[in-house]
Give the backbone structure.
Amino acid sequence: MPRHDREEVARRAGHATWREAVEATAHLSQQEAGRVLGVSHPTVRAWRAELGLGVAAARPSAEQLKAAFQADAGDARHGSANGYRNLGCRCPACTSAWTDYQRARRTGPA
Ligand SMILES: [Zn+2]
């Protein structure tokens, strides 16, 4: 949306500038702020991002979570089939748990 349009949007919503409008609605959810300002929530998100407001830190990716798990030997999930299969860990404890899990699947519980 061009700058003059956002200024127009802000004035219609009772704010002097779009920056003021974004700051004044920063405590609302993107949807609520969008309703107040008469724009879509992706627009609110873009405006907030431009001002560095209300932008939550990006959540870690699945790969980052796996890497963090594998690097943390104290994580209680080591020694589980989940650690081996879903989290990709190949430490002795996880590998052993996976072997046991597969064996139990083939032969039934010991
Ligand atoms: Zn492990």
Remarks:
- The mean pLDDT is 88.
